[in-house]
């Protein structure tokens, strides 16, 4: 991860775009405060990056069964 001032980014934009295209993230600062990040586009499927996987407490069949009876009891 690289940090660059907004002024330097503006003066050398295409160089920084090449860096981001190669996979690196660039933090953009204004007055020494982070204001934005340049990240590579199309980082793949966000689901693959999840660190926590969902565990169902019921079977998939039970999860997708019709709710007609339950709904009638509710109403």
Task: Write up what this structure looks like.
This protein has helices at about 5-10, 15-20, 60-65, 70-75, and strands at about 1-5, 25-30, 35-40. It has a domain at about 1-40: YefM-like domain (YefM-like fold). The radius of gyration is 23 Å and the shape is elongated. The N and C termini lie far apart (about 55 Å). It is an alpha+beta fold. About 35% of the residues lie in helices and about 20% in strands. It has four helices and three strands; from the N terminus they run E-H-H-E-E-H-H. Strand 2 (about 25-30) and strand 3 form a beta hairpin. The mean pLDDT is about 85. It has a three-stranded mixed sheet with strand order 1-2-3. The relative contact order is 0.13. The longest helix is centred in the first third of the chain and has 9 residues, at about 15-20.
- Rg (C-alpha, Å): 23 Å
Strand residues, percent: 15-25%
Spatial order of the strands forming the largest sheet: 1-2-3
Report the span from N to C terminus: 55 Å
Residues in helices, as a percent range: 25-40%
Tally of individual helices: 4
Q: Note the main sheet.
A: 3 strands, mixed
By helix and strand content, what is the structural category? alpha+beta
Entry summary:
The chain is of the alpha+beta class. The chain contains 4 helices and 3 strands.
Spell out the blueprint of helices and strands.
Elements: E1 2-5, H1 6-11, H2 13-21, E2 26-30, E3 33-38, H3 60-63, H4 68-74
Parallel strand pairs: 1-2
Antiparallel strand pairs: 2-3
């Amino acid at each position: 991860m690289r940090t660059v001032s907004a002024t330097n980014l503006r003066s050398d934009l295409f160089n920084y775009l090449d860096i981001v295209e190669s996979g690196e993230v660039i933090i953009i600062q204004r007055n020494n405060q982070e204001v934005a990040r340049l990240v590579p586009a199309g980082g793949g499927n966000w689901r693959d990056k999840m660190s926590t996987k969902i565990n169902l407490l019921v079977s998939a069949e039970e999860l997708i069964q019709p709710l007609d009876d339950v709904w009638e009891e509710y109403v």
